[in-house]
Amino acid sequence: MHCEMILDEYREKQPIFNRIKDIVLDSLQKSLAEKNIIVAGLEARIKTEKSLTGKLELKGYKYRTIDDITDILGVRIITFFSDEVDIISALVEKMFDIDWENSVDKRKMLEIDRFGYMSLHYICRIPKSLFNDPAMPQLNQIRFELQMRSALQHVWANMQHDMGYKSDVEIPVEYQRNMSRLAGMLELADEQFSRIRKEITDYRRNVQSLVASGNFDEVALNGDTFRSYCELRPFQRLADKIATINQAELYDDSLMPYYNVLVHMGMKTIGDIERLRVENSDSAYQLALIQLAGTGLDIIAYSVTLQNLCIVHILKQGFGEAGLLRMFAALYGESPYSVQRASRIYQQAKKINLVN
What we know:
Layout: H1 2-12, H2 14-34, E1 41-46, H3 49-59, E2 73-79, H4 84-95, E3 97-98, E4 104-105, E5 120-125, E6 144-150, H5 151-162, H6 173-213, H7 223-231, H8 236-243, E7 249-251, H9 259-264, H10 270-292, E8 299-301, H11 304-316, H12 320-332, H13 336-350
Parallel strand pairs: 2-6, 7-8
Antiparallel strand pairs: 1-2, 3-5, 4-5, 5-6
C-alpha cells in the first residue's frame, strides 16, 4: 500500500519531472556554451515506472514520499578528460542548490575495480534565482541527481553493466582479476590523456610567448608556431599596400594552407619566414601591380601577400615555372587551373625581371 502511494505520486508528478528536466538541460547547455566548455555528452532521463517499482520492492521502506527518492530525474555530464569534472562541478555548484549531505564524490574510492563508478554525484535543486514559477513551486523543491564523469569512466561503467558485472551472480576470481587489471589500465589512460592535454596546452602557451617576443630564429617552424606567427598579422602592411592599388577591400582568409608550401621551400624556423617577408616584400608588391593592372578587383584576399612572397622566393631561387606549378598544385591540387595559373604568373614575373 505504501509503495503504491509513492507510485501514484510518481504518476501525478510526471509533468513536473519533465519540466525540471527541460530547465536543467537548457540551463546547463547555455552555461557550458557561455564558458566555451565542450563536453562529450549531456543527457537526462526520468526513471521509468518499471524501474521505480523495482527500486521500491528492494528499498521501499526507506522512503516516505516520492520526494525522498532523489534520482527520479537523473542528469549526466560526460567530459572528455577526467580533470574537466572539477571544472564542471564548480559551474554546477554556482548554478544549482546542492544537497551536500546526500551528494557523494565516488572518485575518492580507492578500489582498483571501481574505475567505472568514480563519478561525482550531486543531489541538486533548481534555485529560484535560476528559475521561478509561482504557479509551480515544486520546481524548486524536487531534488534530482547530477552525475559527472569522464568519457572513459562512462564507457567502462556501461561495459560492466552490459556484462552483468554487478549482478547477483558471483563472477569467477580469474574474471574479476582480469576486470580489475583492465580497470587499472583505463584509469591510467584517463590520467595520461589529461596530463598530455595539459602538456600540449603549456607547450602552445610557450610557443605563443616565444613568437610574441620576436625571437623568431629560436622558434622552430611547425603548425602551432606558424599559426601563432600569423596571429601577429606580419603581412598586414604589405596587404594594405596591395589593396591601395585598386582601393580594394581586404578579405581576411587563412594563411594555414601555405604552411606545407613553406616547409617544402626549406623554411625551418619562423625567422626564415620573417626573412622571406623582409627580403621579398618590394618584389611581391611589384608583382601585385602587374597582377591587378586593369582588373578593377575591389576585394582582395589577405593571403595574396604570402602567395606573392612565395612566388618571388621560388623564382629568385631559379625554380621557374615548374616551381610555381608545384606550389599551386600543393594549394589547389593538380589541375589545368594550376597549370594555367603558374604559366600566367611566370609571364607576369618576367615583366619585373624576377625570372633569371
